C-alpha cells in the first residue's frame, strides 16, 4: 500500500478524514485463504505539509559599503509535524548564513533563527534568489537585494 499525499487526499477520503487535524482513519478488512474470520484493523495516518515558512519573506540588505557587511535575521518555521532537514545553497560569495554551515534540522512546528550576512564585493546592485532545500525534496526561494 502506497499513499501519495496531495491537496485532494483529505477530500477523497470523505467521512474518514478530519480536515481540521489532517487525520484519516480508514477501516480495512483482510480476508486470508484458510482463515474463517477476516482480520479487521484501522489504518490511521495524518497528512502534514512539508512546507517551511520564512519571516521576512524577502531580504533587503539596503546600502552597504564594499568591504563592509550587513546581517539580517531570518526566522524559519517548520509547518510539518515531521522533522525536517534543510540547507541553503548554493550560496554566492556575497552571502553567508550563520550560525553553522548553512544546514539545519527543524523539529515539528519548530522555529529557528539564522542570520543571513551580505558582504558586497563590488559597488553594484545585488539581486539573488536564495534557495533553501529540504530532505523532502522541496525547494523554497527568498529574494535578496542589496
Labels describing this entry:
single chain, mainly beta, 5-stranded mixed sheet, 1 helix
N/C terminus separation:
50 Å
Largest β sheet strand count, sense and barrel closure: 5 strands, mixed
Tell me the strand percentage band.
over 45%
- The count of helical stretches stands at 1
Radius of gyration: 22 Å
- Could you give the count of β-strands? 12
Summing up helix and strand content along with how strands pair, one would put the structural category as: mainly beta
Based on Cα principal axes, name the global outline: elongated
**Average residue-wise pLDDT:** 88
Order of helices and strands: HEEEEEEEEEEEE
Explain this structure:
The chain has 146 residues and is mainly beta. It has one helix at 9-12; strands spanning 17-18, 23-30, 39-46, 52-55, 58-60, 70-78, 84-88, 95-98, 103-106, 111-118, 127-134, 139-145. The chain has a five-stranded mixed beta sheet, with no helix packed on it. Strands 4-6-10-8 form a four-stranded antiparallel beta sheet, with no helix packed on it. It has a three-stranded antiparallel beta sheet with strand order 1-2-3, with no helix packed on it. It is elongated, with a radius of gyration of 22 Å.
Write the layout of secondary structure elements.
Layout: H1 9-12, E1 17-18, E2 23-30, E3 39-46, E4 52-55, E5 58-60, E6 70-78, E7 84-88, E8 95-98, E9 103-106, E10 111-118, E11 127-134, E12 139-145
Parallel strand pairs: 5-12
Antiparallel strand pairs: 1-2, 2-3, 4-6, 6-10, 7-9, 7-11, 8-10, 11-12
Amino acid at each position: 500500500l502506497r499513499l501519495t499525499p496531495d491537496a485532494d487526499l483529505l477530500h477523497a477520503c470523505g467521512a474518514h478524514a478530519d480536515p481540521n487535524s489532517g487525520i484519516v482513519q480508514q477501516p480495512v478488512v483482510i480476508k486470508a485463504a484458510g482463515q474463517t474470520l477476516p482480520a479487521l484493523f484501522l489504518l490511521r495516518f495524518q497528512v502534514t505539509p512539508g512546507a517551511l515558512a520564512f519571516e521576512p519573506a524577502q531580504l533587503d540588505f539596503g546600502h552597504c559599503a564594499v568591504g563592509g557587511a550587513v546581517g539580517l535575521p531570518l526566522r524559519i518555521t517548520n509547518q510539518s509535524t515531521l522533522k525536517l532537514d534543510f540547507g541553503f545553497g548554493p550560496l554566492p560569495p556575497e552571502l553567508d548564513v550563520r550560525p553553522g554551515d548553512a544546514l539545519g534540522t527543524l523539529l515539528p512546528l519548530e522555529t529557528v533563527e539564522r542570520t543571513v550576512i551580505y558582504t558586497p564585493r563590488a559597488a553594484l546592485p545585488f539581486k539573488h534568489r536564495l534557495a533553501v532545500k529540504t530532505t523532502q525534496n522541496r525547494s523554497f526561494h527568498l529574494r535578496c537585494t542589496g
